[in-house]
């Protein structure tokens, strides 16, 4: 699996394009919210991946916050499936602004169709690549992380960053859940983690952060 990180310099979430090169399948993790960020994603899809000019096969959202999900609308309107944990997926389907935080970003609540719920421990196939979904609440109650065993990569959303943990004071946030979720990811054999904001980190970073919380 090849990873194309699209790191946000501003308030968008980071986006990660994952490509199973053999089967030419592409998944997007968290497409952000601004038009500018969406254009960067489309440019990578069109010019850098092996699947020139095509759409991704599906999207995974790590959680329901506006800065991670609003650009789903563009892809869902074109028939692309969006995977989320059921709790956060329902918040989007119910257009629950308190949980989505659209108002916080001074934006309208997005209307996103084509949502499919992904369970804890579910394996989603990206060609021959298996993406393992882990329910890792704490930042929101329906947050998930995505693990890929061969490259030992973990996509952690806003659970943990290279220099600390995600906010727990927003609706659905919970400190005890967050600590358990970090213990859960530390049981995995990942080398690199790819967070929802900021730069990538290592297993050692997470281990160190866990000691201080
Ligand atoms: Zn968030």
Automatic annotation (TrEMBL):
Coiled-coil stretches noted in the UniProt entry, renumbered to this chain: none
InterPro entries found in the cross-reference section: MBL_Glyoxalase_II (IPR051453), Metallo-B-lactamas (IPR001279), RibonucZ/Hydroxyglut_hydro (IPR036866)
Source superkingdom: Archaea
Domain Metallo-beta-lactamase: 12-197
Keywords: Hydrolase, Metal-binding, Zinc
GO molecular function: hydrolase activity; metal ion binding
Family annotation (Pfam families): Lactamase_B (PF00753)
PANTHER family: HYDROXYACYLGLUTATHIONE HYDROLASE GLOC
Name of the featured protein: MBL fold metallo-hydrolase
